[in-house]
Every structure is written in structure tokens, then in C-alpha cells.
Amino acid sequence: MTHTRRTAAFAMLSIVACAISTSANAQKTSQTAAWPTKPVRIIVGFPGGSSPDLTARAFAEPLSKALGQPVIVENKVGAAGNIAADAVAKATDDHTLGLMINGNMTIAKLLNPKLSYDPLKDLTPVSLLGVSPLVLTAPANAPGNSAAEFLSAARASGDRWNYGTPGVGTVGHIGMELLKAKARMAPLHVPYAGYPQVATAMIAGDLQLSLLPPALASAQIKAGKLKAIGITASVRSALVPEIPSLSEAGVKDLNLEIWNAVAAPNSMPKPVVMRLSALFSEIARSPEMRQKMFQQGWTVQGTSAEGLANRVKADTALLGGIISQQSIKTD
Prior knowledge:
The protein contains 13 helices and eleven strands. It is of the alpha/beta class. The mean pLDDT is 90.
């Protein structure tokens, strides 16, 4: 083959390759523009009335309007949200999302190597919606007139006290284990289906303390059913400015937040993920949603997919370190 013919052949191959690439990109763009083609599911791993459930339902209506399709919230309760996270990870319909808490997207596999999904490999970050410190809460008749006095009573009670959480591996669990080490106390862990059940058990006297989300804690504190001890931060929070930080009671370097975020199966087309990320961010930052989220006890974030990915990486390191230090394992 002469040099001229080779040049012509290469040119033709380049034209064909460009045409194929252009066609593929056009097809992908067309598919993305056409998405969604049916109702979108948001799977939540906790009961109705829980913080993740309320967040999912708050976003469902505006998301439905933006997408032009129904958005259905489905509760799959159990295993600290990991049953729902597994269902999201294995979904292949390109129309399933998950409303996740920290543990589902970070340290679930560290706590249980046999877990049927790997959050870092099987879930794709979409957007971090809201963050919040936790409130150390006790029954209204709990001993002590200050946080320091309560913590002293907790130390004196040894393992005769119980604390509740929405499950093994949640920030409520890992955070309390860290607090136990810092405050030198030893209450025993009792897992429940969700935070509302924890609050109910504490009001009934079955639990002596717990780390609760601010909105849930505040409602019961204002009703006189529970007592606030302090928040898991070094400074007070705008969400509950009347509640002191545990740092004020002498518990230093305890900065823990719970968060709600949206994730998709790793199989979901990346252009769809990017579109969803932009929509969730836009909805989260609207004045109406900011107010609604604040009332539910959240400081709005509305990050990009990359922003959530960075938070997942940071929290995996933080919470994973606590798991290792305290030798926390699934029951």
C-alpha cells in the first residue's frame, strides 16, 4: 500500500471512529434527556417518622415536579439501614435511589466484612442533603442538675445503665462508644429500629441515655418528657442554641454529626447521577427547603456528588478509627 493510500485509509478510519463516538454520545445524551421513563423510588432504611424518612418525603414532591414523574418513598427497615442500602446497591432499573445515613455509605463493611454490599464500591454519591450534631438526652427524672453531674452519675452506675441507638454501626452507636471512652462511663448498648423508638423507650424508663437528633430531642424536651445533657460538638449549634455543648461539661474533642444523603446504584448512568445531583442541590438550597430542613433539625448542605464523595471519605476515616480503637463489631 502506498503512502498516499495509507494516509487515506487512516483518515477514513478516523472519520468512522469519530462518527461512532459522536453517535454513542448523542445516544447517551438522548437517553439522559429522556430519563426518567417511569416513577422513581427513594428507598429509606428506617421507619416512617424517622429523620431519613421525613427528609425523603420532604424532597419527593419537588423532585417529582422537576422530573415530571412520581417519586415514591419506600421503607425497607432493618439492620441499621443496611437492608435498604443493599436493595439500592443491587437495583438495576436506573430509577432507584436511596436516602442514606452516615454508616450505610461509610463504615458498614468495616463493621461486618460479610455484608452483601460494599458502600464504597456499589453505591454512587449523589448529594449530601443535611448535617446535624446529636443531643445527649436522658429521661426527665435523670439524676443531676447539670451535664457534669449527670456524667458523674453515669460513671457511678457502671454497666447498670443502658443506652439506645437506631442500630449497630450508626453514628448514635459509634458516637456513644467514643463518649463512653472520653467520659469514662460504661452503659450497655441496646439497638432499636429507629430514633423514635429509642425516644419512646427512654421516656418509658427502659433506657437511661441516648444520642438523639436535635429535632426529635427538642420536641420531647419541650414537652417535659426528656432532659438535654449536651450536644456532640465543641460549640453550640444554631439548631438548638439553648443546649450546651458537651465540651462545656469537660468532654473535649467530641465533634460528631449525623447526615442524610442521596446515593444511587453504581450502575446508574453517570449523566443521570450528575443531573440528579444538580436537582437535589437546587431543591435543598431553596428558601422553602432550607426552612423545612431546619425545622426537621438539619443544617442544609445540598452538595455536588463530589462533595458527598469527599464527606464519605472523611467520615470513613473518622468513624473507622473509632471502630478500630474501641474494637466495635456487629452483634
